[in-house]
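Sorry, explain these tokens?

***
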Amino acid sequence: WDQRQIENRLLRHPLIAQKYKLSQDAASASPFNRPGLKDKSILIISDTSTFAYQLFSSLNSVSANVKIITFWQYSDPARLQLLFKDILDTPHDLVIFFLGDTFGFPIPDMILEKLLKTAAAGKGIIFFPFFAWALHQGAYQTLDDLIPVKLVDEPRKDQLWLKASRFLASDDYTWLNAEAFIENQPATIKVDNRHPLLKEIEHDFDLIPSFEFLTMKEQANCILTDNIGTPFLVVNEAINAPIVYINSCTHNCLSKTHILSPFEISDPFQKLIVNTIFWCLKLAS
């Protein structure tokens, strides 16, 4: 059993957890246990990644005002109607949208309208890949003003070399994919400026994510890049709402190697996610 299955069963049988000393105060253990969160409403629109579920679990252990809509729910028309009545038609202070594992499936208009209404109300949105890729394919053009980055027309030679070097190092053929993104690639995130989003993050840190080769739009503020200059965390300053694009996900369909959730294994990345959520909620000190 993986950890999530064990935790789920312990939640349903707290006496067993207590007897074998397996229980803990989930709220106190959560990195989100800070003042103000319980008064804010958060909606997570999830792909199928462990990262998305871990983020929901950690937030939900602190606040009951955190809801999640999974891909398996919103892709079904009947379920979507129920979700609209119960969740989507309700204003939220922050929407977090994971698209990584499900980027090849269409996003319903109701979900797109939810994003537009959230931004119009001046509330926060956090996007993850592959929204820039989708826009590049001509999809979701109504979101174009919200996304502060765009896919490069052609990857640079050093970016293409990342794909080629994977083939040289092993029997990994993902470099043959000419799309402007790469999966399961080691990267060093350069921390070379100061910003509220970087609170308690003092040094460069390493990740092995999947990410897009991006360029900046006008009035976009790039807070972090990786070691070859690819935008990693970008704030949209053209919109009167806190909107952030984080160029990191765990989607990995072209390689045999599983990508571990960065929220679980990287302390700097976890702090970055926590800081970004509180900043979007306007709770950052």
Notes: The CA atoms of residues 42 and 66 lie 5 Å apart. The chain has a mean pLDDT of 88.
